[in-house]
Every structure is written in C-alpha cells, then in structure tokens.
Amino acid sequence: xxxxxxxxxxxxxxxxxxxxxxxxxxxxxxxxxxxxxxxxxxxxxxxxxxxxxxxxxxxxxxxxxxxxxxxxxxxxxxxxxxxxxxxxxxxxxxxxxxxxxxxxxxxxxxxxxxxxxxxxxxxxxxxxxxxxxxxxxxxxxxxxxxxxxxxxxxxxxxxxxxxxxxxxxxxxxxxxxxxxxxxxxxxxxxxxxxxxxxxxxxxxxxxxxxxxxxxxxxxxxxxxxxxxxxxxxxxxxxxxxxxxxxxxxxxxxxxxxxxxxxxxxxxxxxxxxxxxxxxxxxxxxxxxxxxxxxxxxxxxxxxxxxxxxxxxxxxxxxxxxxxxxxxxxxxxxxxxxxxxxxxxxxxxxxxxxxxxxxxxxxxxxxxxxxxxxxxxxxxxxxxxxxxxxxxxxxxxxxxxxxxxxxxxxxxxxxxxxxxxxxxxxxxxxxxxxxxxxxxxxxxxxxxxxxxxxxxxxxxxxxxxxxxxxxxxxxxxxxxxxxxxxxxxxxxxxxxxxxxxxxxxxxxxxxxxxxxxxxxxxxxxxxxxxxxxxxxxxxxxxxxxxxxxxxxxxxxxxxxxxxxxxxxxxxxxxxxxxxxxxxxxxxxxxxxxxxxxxxxxxxxxxxxxxxxxxxxxxxxxxxxxxxxxxxxxxxxxxxxxxxxxxxxxxxxxxxxxxxxxxxxxxxxxxxxxxxxxxxxxxxxxxxxxxxxxxxxxxxxxxxxxxxxxxxxxxxxxxxxxxxxxxxxxxxxxxxxxx
Length: 737
Prior knowledge:
CATH superfamily of the largest domain: Multidrug efflux transporter AcrB transmembrane domain
Low-confidence stretches: 340-352, 727-737
Helix content: 55-70%
Oligomer: single chain
C-alpha cells in the first residue's frame, strides 16, 4: 500500500498539469450537469415493511387520484375578539378565500369549513384544507404565492389567518454561520501550516471535492429521487473530511522536507505514509455511511451513499491533487518548523529546541495514565447521563419556531379543536375478503370509539368499489406524545381482533403513525447496524494496526464519545439547556434518525483520528522505540495536526447549526460535540493512557493471525528502500512550474 501510494504521489507531483486538468474538468462536467438538472425536491419518504407504509400504498391503489402524496395546507382563520367565524361577514371572507384557492392550477381540492365541519365549537376558529396534485417541494412558486396572497387578502378584512402544512415548505438554508466555520478553519490552517499558501491548499482541494460531490448530487437528484437535505449533509461531511485529509498530507510533506528530502520525494513519502492513513480513515467513514442502508429506509440510505461518495472524492483528491498542487507551490511551502516572516519565522529556531505541547502532554499522560483514564471516562459518563432520557420523534409544525406561520396555525388548531387535531390518524379498512364490508366498516368505527384518548371518529368513507374505507381518528393528546403512540398500538390491537373475526385488514397510517413506525424501525435497526459497522471497521483496524487490543480500545472509546454527544443533544434540544445560545426556539423529542445517523458518521470520524494518531505511534514502535516513548513520539509529530483537524471539523459542523432545517441544525450540533469529545477526550487522553497501561501488550497479535493478514504497511516501512531516490531532480522539476 505505502509503496503504491508513494509512486502515485510522485507521479501526481511530476504530472501535475495532467492531474490538475483532470480534476478541473471533472468539476466543470459535474457543474454543467447540475446546471441543467431540475431542482432537488423532497425525497419520497417511505418506510418499507411497516404498517403505516402498507396502508399508504393501499390508499394509492384503492383510491386512485386521491393525491395521497400531494402537498397539503391548512388555512386557519380566527375571528376578532367578540366575533365568531359564523358571522355573515367573516363567513363571506372565508368562502371568497376558498373560491380563490380552488382556482389554482395545481390544486386538487379545497374543503369548505362550513360544509366539512371545520368550525370550532365556540365558533371562533375555522380552517380550510387545501390538497395539491404534487408534493410540497415540487409546487410551483406561483402556487405558494397564490396561497400566501389569499391569506393576506383575508387578513385585510380583520381576521387572523395562518397557514400550516407542507405546502410552504422550502429548501433549507444553512445561513452565514457556515461561512464563519470555513473562516475559522482557514485561520487554524494558517496557524498550523505556517503560511497562507500552505493553508490555502486544503481549503481549495476541499472546496473542489465538495463542489464535485454536491454538483453530482444535484445533477442526479431528480433521477435518483434525492432529497433537498442530501446535498447539505454531503457538503457538511465532505468539507470537514476534505480539509482534514488534505491537512494530514500537507503536514507530512512539510515534515519530510524538514528531514532534508527533496520536494518530489517528500510528496511521494507524504502520500505513502499519511496517504495510507487517509485511505483507511476514509474507508471507515465510507463503511459507516454506506452501512446506513441496513435500516432499509430509502431516504437514509440515499443520504448515506451520497455522503460516502463525497468522502471517497475527498480521499482521491488528497492522494492526487494535493501532491500536484504542492508541485505548483514549489519552495513557497516551507519545511515544518520554518515559518514565513509574517507569522514570526524569526522565533522558529528557538521554539524548535523546546518540546512542543504534544510532547509535554503525552509525557504527562504516560506518567499518570490511570488518573487520566479515570478522569476521561468519568467525565464522558457524566455528559452521557441525559441520553437516558432520550425521546425520539419526527418534527411537525409544532416544532417550528413560534415566529413562523406554520407554528401559529398549529397553535390555533390546538386552541380550537384540541392538541390531537394536529395529528389525525388515518385508519384504512380493507374488507375485500369480507362478506359484508359495510358491517366491517361500522364495527371498526365502533370499536375505535371505545378506546381511551379518542376525541372523534369520523364515519367510514368507502371507495367506489365499496371494499375499502378510511376512518379519521382524532386523538386527545398531541401528535408527539407517548399517549398518542399508545393509541396507535391500541387501534392496531383492535384491528387484529377484527381480522380474526372478519378476515378484514385494519391498518393505521398518517403522519403521526408514520413517525411512530420510523422511530420503531430505527430503534430495531440500531443494534444490527452497530454490529455490522463496528465489526467491519474492527476487522479493518486489525489489518491496519496488526493488533487486537488497539481496535477494541478504539471501538469502546467511540461508544463513550457518541453516548456523551447524544447526552449533549438531549440536554440542548430536548431539555432546553443553552437553547438560546444554540438558536433552539422550540424543544421537543430528538429526531428519530438522529441517533443512528450520528452513530454512523461519528464512528467514521472517530476512526479518522484513531488512524492518524495511532499509526504515527505504531510507526515509532515498529522502528524500535519502547511503548511509552512511542506514544510520546507519535504525539510529538501528530498531536498538533490532529488538534487542528478536530478544531476545523468542529468549526465546519458548528456552521450548520445556523441552518433553517431542524434536522441539519441538530446533526451539525451533534457532530460538532461528538468530535470535541472524541478528539480531545478519547483520542488525546484516553488512548495514550490505555496504550501506556498496556505497554507491549497493546500490539499483541496471535502468530497465526499475523501470518493470515495482508501486510498493508501503513507505517511506510517499505519506503526505506527508496531512501535517497528522487532527491536530485527536484530543482529541475520546480523550474518547470
């Protein structure tokens, strides 16, 4: 591996014009494809194998033309104080609004509040339901403008008018905080690499990689049914790992220069050593992201594969474009320890004689490993305590900021019709195999009325064939409550009894039931996912480190950091701690897919730092140093760079906390905190403490397994044969730039 990558690095350095042209052409090609592609919408949300999805598919089959997957809007009206919605003037305003909305080209139907029971008991609140022929993200802007204009006209008459539903759903924005995150990354790179030019290389290559990845996703969005958040999450992860991978290669290049090697040789060795770590670190991230497909939720699978593709591009760019750009930069990228005058180069010589911070910290940990280990474990354990109170759910209008019209409409409906009105349950009764379908429909409605937590059960609405009917059930509790979840299970238990008596299927669907089924499916998939991903990565790390205990320690450390990060997410987004600082306007259940998505991504990123840090330690150990000294040596060369990489990742992820999308906001915070815990507590404290305690046992591997495993040579031992090669032709190559 190291020898192959060494040759690849030297090739890219020598043939830099060809390599640079290839990546620029690829970026241009992806850009052209994205420019001509239709805009990404919402990925069609489906959860195969669940009752809610089965009922939804049955509705599509038995009620053709019902636009079950179309966008919906609820236009909610509230009368001024002292008036009612049944007053003549207010009634006329509402009906004018309904007539106006019905004229839209994409509107399937509009229900009149006065004919469909859409007026509250006290007469102060009414609502009109609007159903569209297309999904919320596919709506033409003119349709949204017409909806908002109709509401504004009704407001002019003195009514309070708000709009709920997904018809006003827009593509999420990440905000200016993302730019601030990149700015922080740039500052960290300048401090770490000692020059503006060297710092610019990781940023440039990361932006190129993310540009290719996001443009490709945009170009394929319509064809592959990729959601609008897919490209945002891919850019989040791709940008972070792209900067980090490039940083490790550039840092190793400067270290090789400091040892007196020629520039082409240094580029080859940087790719052969740091590049090997990049390959295996990237593989762990890809495994974790692609492994999300085991959950069998298509949207999550597509998000994982798209992000994995962006990570793969980041790896390839670090191995090829970075050495090519180093060739262009020439002597303007200085050896490690030699900084430009702008950054205080005159003091470099004095500082070089003193042990750096990484050396001093590692020496301290090696002297007191047990105390450091206990402190790290107890600290992360304390941070993980809130995770025991984790409540899962999917966002609805009730989780929107109070300043939005969707949230205000949600609150008005709760006020006028009860909390459960915002989460109606749709019961689908399939009586095709029954002798008397009408009797089955009546029995189902009567049985559901007798359940606890039920406010209203609508009469059965059969299809044209008369063999299938829908029944709308309004719970007493709000959609995200445990009581509503229990009601869904009670209805399904009742349906099982009807099935036994009449051979009719009773299925529960609707947004609330979908959310419950998604949460259950994700919970059921978490353990198999962990076994698959951690198991594959464990085997991969055994090959990399040629050890049993080091990969085991890496996996256990990851579990600590991810539990602590989940605890932080619960504390902020569910409990409301520091919610004002984090821009959280509304607390509530944690998004259902958050734990499993964070587990996947954080595991991959955690293994990044494990690979980069421990390969440097193993390199020193393989070259003859004692275990404790090898830890200190590894930290001397890698702690500064790993710290910088972690700060960059935290900055990039934190930038997404400013997103308008609640899922992106929560994932950005969760990943930032997870990297903070994993890099600075697990990898920088617990890892060296454990290695110091284990000593030579850390690198133990059964002889039969040692013979069976392939030798990937991540430490670059095979490069010793190339000592001195290529050092004589560097100046000749540089003049060609």
